[in-house]
């Protein structure tokens, strides 16, 4: 067993990140990287990613580390190992882990991997939230909704992000998360009566926390598709999935 990791964390780190020989550990997270290719300060990146985790723990009141039995393992994976493609991805089935694209090692970007993790690190929180059981396919929307405040918290472009998502919702864009995220932003702004003050609202941690808690209460037993407009992707996934009941949009 490696220092500071439990057996499950060690298993995820070694089996999912075969090319990462080094790692940093924080309270909720393990940052794994290949010493031969990585440029930068791994300890400071791990601490920045931990700040994202702390923010999400505060906003959601949840602790995925306790629920999933492991810290989230964030690390780089080569394309030939079944890497993350262009950006990153999280998978609970495969262990509580985030694959980062190997491309980030080749093209240094000072905002990465914090920026991509402002989406991916929301996934474990959604997974252990009351929303997940019957609103699994709204997860991308929830992640992209929280990504706005989280980006701002990290000194990235959260306002611009929210504006883009709202536009995607108004245009009824059929991607996975943008439209759904935009609808959540619009609902939150309406709820607090700040439709014209979105730029200030994105930084209002207390209000975002309250809104998230309302979502957890309301949609723990109610499909979000009852009250929000699902994209084609969500509709299709819901119809095929056994968890239902969901409305049939072709009806
Ligand atoms: Zn996602």
Observed structural traits:
2 domains; binds zinc ion; 5-stranded mixed beta sheet; 251 residues; 50% helix; alpha/beta; single chain
Descriptive report:
- With 251 residues, the chain is of the alpha/beta class.
- It has a five-stranded mixed β-sheet with strand order 1-2-3-5-4, sandwiched between helices.
- The model has no long low-confidence stretch (mean pLDDT 93).
- The chain has two domains: 109 residues, no CATH class; 109 residues, no CATH class.
- The longest helix has 19 residues.
- It contains 13 helices and five strands.
- Helix 5 runs antiparallel to helix 8.
- It starts with 6 loop residues before the first helix and ends in an 11-residue tail after the last helix.
- A hairpin with a 5-residue loop joins strand 4 and strand 5.
- The site of zinc ion has 4 residues, from helix 8.
DSSP, total strands: 5
Helix content: 40-55%
Structural class: alpha/beta
Number of H- or I-type helical stretches: 13
Order of helices and strands: HEEHHEEEHHHHHHHHHH
Question: Which ligands occur here?
Answer: zinc ion
Q: What's the end-to-end separation, in Å? A: 55 Å
pLDDT < 50 stretches: none
Number of structurally distinct domains: 2
Shape by Cα distribution:
globular
Strand order of the largest sheet: 1-2-3-5-4
Average of pLDDT: 93
